[in-house]
Every structure is written in structure tokens, then in C-alpha cells.
Design brief:
The protein is α+β, with helices and mostly antiparallel strands and 145 residues long. The protein contains four helices and five strands. A hairpin with a 4-residue loop joins strand 2 and strand 3.
Length: 145
């Protein structure tokens, strides 16, 4: 086994029952991003990630009528935000009218994330959004500092 693996990652996971509400997901996410120091180095990115988490967990609870599993994975290049739910139906962007109160969740995720994708799994689906922080928010991993 190689000692100097080129991939270093850290991750967190949390189950969010429908009864837990989306605020729990936002607060939990914000706390983990603070542990990376992003609340100081990339506060706008933190707000974008929290917005995406809010939308993705809401979609799981409302549209899939499912509990949500929220996974954050930081691989030193991208923060991967994955929400799993029990529905195999892939999300579709809706064209909400000006007066509509909802229907913009995936549009918002697409606007704030660097990339996103949805894929079916044997027991539901995963929706993953990727966020690349500015270089000022990335820890120095070169060993020269």
C-alpha cells in the first residue's frame, strides 16, 4: 500500500429524516465548512453550499417523500455535496413562472455549484453538486509552508 497517496479526502455523513427539517441540514453543513476554515476564507462559498444543501434536502423530503442522507466529501480540489433519497426518479428542472412559489431548486443548484449530476442507485438516487473553493480557501498541502 502506497504511503503517499495522491488523494486525500475527509468526509461527513448525516441522515435527515423528513421530521428533522431542512434547518438541521443547513446548520450541520455550515459547522463542517467552518471546520475547514471556509467561514473565514470563503464565506460566499459557504453560503452557496448551504443554499444547495437546503434545496437538495428539500427535494428529497418534498418530491421523493423520503428521508435524506447528506454526505459532504472534501478531496482538496472539490467539495462534493451528495444527497441520497429513496426515489429512483431523477430530478428534472422545471420552468417556474414568475408567480410560482417553488420549482427553482435545481436552477439554484446549477447557478451556485461548479457542476452537479444525478444518478440512480439500487435503492434510490444520488444528487451531487461540486464546489471548487478559491485558492485562498485551500489549505497548503505542498509541505513547503
Amino acid at each position: 500500500m502506497a504511503q503517499n497517496s495522491s488523494l486525500r479526502a475527509v468526509g461527513w455523513a448525516r441522515s435527515l429524516p423528513i421530521s428533522s427539517g431542512v434547518k438541521a441540514a443547513r446548520d450541520w453543513t455550515r459547522a463542517h465548512l467552518a471546520s475547514l476554515g471556509w467561514d473565514r476564507t470563503a464565506p460566499d462559498l459557504v453560503d452557496s453550499v448551504v443554499l444547495a444543501v437546503s434545496e437538495l434536502v428539500t427535494n428529497a423530503h418534498v418530491h421523493a417523500r423520503s428521508n435524506a442522507q447528506l454526505v459532504l466529501t472534501w478531496d482538496e480540489q472539490c467539495l462534493h455535496v451528495t444527497v441520497h433519497d429513496a426515489s429512483t426518479r431523477l430530478p428534472e428542472q422545471r420552468h417556474a413562472g414568475d408567480q410560482a412559489l417553488g420549482g427553482r431548486g435545481l436552477f439554484l443548484v446549477e447557478a451556485v455549484a461548479d457542476a452537479w449530476e444525478a444518478r440512480q442507485c439500487p435503492r434510490g438516487k444520488d444528487v451531487t453538486a461540486c464546489f471548487e473553493p478559491p485558492s485562498s480557501a485551500r489549505p497548503d498541502t505542498s509541505g513547503a509552508g
